[in-house]
Amino acid sequence: MKKLVTLALLSAFAIPLAATAARAKGSSAPGAFPAQAPVPAGDNDQTLRAMHDEMERARTRLALPGVQKPFYLEYRLLDLDVRTVTATFGAIVSSTTTRSRFMSVDVRVGDYHLDSSNFISEDGFQGFLGSTGQVGIDRDYSSLRQDLWLATDQAYKAAVTQMSLKQAFLRSLTKPPEIDDFSHAETLVKVDLRIEPDWTSRNWEDEARADSAVLKDSPQLYGTRVTYSMIYATSYLMTSEGTIIRSTRHMAGIEAALDTEADDGMGLNPCYAVYGSQPSELPDAGTVSKSLAQAGNELVMLHTSPLVSDYTGPVLFDPTAAASVLAQVLAPSLSGARPPLSMTQDLNAFLERFGGRSEWTGRVGTRVLPATVSLVDDPTIRDFQGHPLLGSYDVDDEGVKAQRVPLVENGILRNLLMSRRPGPDSAVSNGHARSALLSDPSPLSSNLLFQSSDASNPADLRKKFLDACRADGHEWCLEVKRMANPGISALRQEDFSEFIAEMAGGIASGERMPLLVYRVYVADGRQEPVRGGIIEGLTLRSLRNILAVGDDPAVYIYMQNPAEGLSLTALGSFGAAEGGIPSTVIAPSLLLEEIEVRGFHGEPRRLPLVTPPSLK
Length: 616
Description:
By secondary structure, this protein is of the alpha+beta class. It is built from eleven helices and 29 strands.
C-alpha cells in the first residue's frame, strides 16, 4: 500500500504523462495495441460510446515514466435491474425495485506469459481484477468516462506495484512456474439488443401473499420466507484486444425457507425453489401454493420422524439428490485453471479446508469414473427433453464463445473447464469463464450432463438396491430423496454463517447434508422417513464405485455461489437467485456402494417457552 501511495504522489495521474513516458529511455513497453473496434454504426448506447472512447484514450496514452506500459486493458460493466418481493404467512415483508450499475477495470502489465495477475502478496489477494465500483444509473456518457478514467489510472498503478512484488517473489523460488498467466483469445464483436425489464405481466405481491399464506396451515413452523426474485442484467465487456460484447440475460426465481424445531430441539430447515429464464416462466400462484403446502406437510412429517442411527452401507440417491451431490462433489475438480501464486500458505490451507482442491488436475487421459459413465458440460443447449436449462449462454464472461466440452468419456478424463487462465492440462479457454456481479470469472460448469451406457429402469435399480442391502446383512438401507441447500433454507445470514462454520471442518472430507431421507426395509420395501443424518466421506473417489445408474434423468437447476472463498469449493453450489450463477445438472438416480451416515449428535436448541400464537 505504501508503494502505491508513493507511486501516486510521484506520478499524479498516469494518463497525462503519456507523452513523457513515450520519450522515457529504458521503457519496456510491449508492442502497440491492435486498433480498437468501433461501436456498431447506428447504436446510440452511451455506455458503449463511453467505454470505447476511454479505452481508445487509455490504450494509446496510458503510461508512467520509465515503467512498463500495459499490454492488456479490460472494461466490464453490469447494468442490473432487480424486482424482489418477500412475504411471510400471507404478509408482505418487503417489496423493492432497484436499479444499479457496477464497473470493473482490469489493467495488466507484462505479457501473456508473465503478467501482474494471479498473485497473492502478503497484503492479500489483488490479482484477477483491477478497480471496481458503482457508477451512475443514468447511462450518462461524461460521468461514466470520468469513472473509467479514474479506475483505469488506479488499476494501472496497482498492476505496476503488483508486478514488482510478483517478480521479486518469483526470484525467490527454486523452480518458478512455467505456465502462462493469460491465454490469447479470438477477438469477438457481439452487440445484442438491450432488453428492458418488464415486471407488469403479473401481480407479484398478490402472488407472494397467497403463496406464503398457505404455510399458515403448518402450526409447527417458527418462521417462513417466500421470495420472488426477478433479474435483468445487461453485461458489457470491452478489451484492448478489440472484443466488444453487450448481452442481456434475465432470470427469475421463487425461493422459500421454512424453519422449526423437532420436539427434541433439533433444527429443521426445509426449502423450496423453482426458477425460470424470465418472470413469465415462473409457475402460477396455484402451482407454487401446492408445492409449498407439500413442503409444509414434509415438515410435519419430519417433525415427528425418528432420528436416523449411524449407518454404513448402500445408499440410493434419487435423481434430484444425485444431481445436488454431483454439483457439490465435482465442482472443485472440473476447473483446469491453476490457482494463483501465493506468498503465504493461507490459500492452500483454505482450499483444503473447504474442499476446493482439484483431484483431476494432471489426470487427463486416466480413469476417474466408472467405464460406463460419461460427463459433458454444454452451455450451448437450451433444453433437455422439453425442460428449459438455465446454464445456457452464447459467450462467456471473458468474451470467449461458449463450447460443448466432453469432460469424461467412458470413465476417462478428457478435458477440464477452462477460462483464459491456463493450467497444467490446457493453455486455452473453452468458453467457461463465469461470474456474477463482476466477481472474478472462474471456470464453472453450465449445463452438466451425467450419462451412463448401462442404465437400469426404476424397477431393476430398486431390486439392485435391495439386493445390495441384503448382501450386506442390513435390515434396512437409506434412500436420499433431496439434499439440503442452506443458501436458500437459512432465514438469516447468521444461520448461513453458522452452517459454514459447522461444515467447514468436514466438507473437504466429504460431509454432505441431506434434507429428505427414508429408511427402506429389505423385507417388504416399506419406507420410513428419518431425520438428523449427515453423510460422511462422500468425495470424488466415492463416484468411482457406483453400483448402478438409473435411466431416469432429472433437470436440477441451482445457483452457484460466486462469493470469494466459496466459488470452486464444495460450498459453491449453495447459492441463491440474487447474486447466484444459474446452473444445471442433469443426472439420474445413483446407487452408491458404501456410504457412511452419521446420526444426529449435536447440541439441541432450547425450545420456546411459550407455544406459538394461532396464525388463523
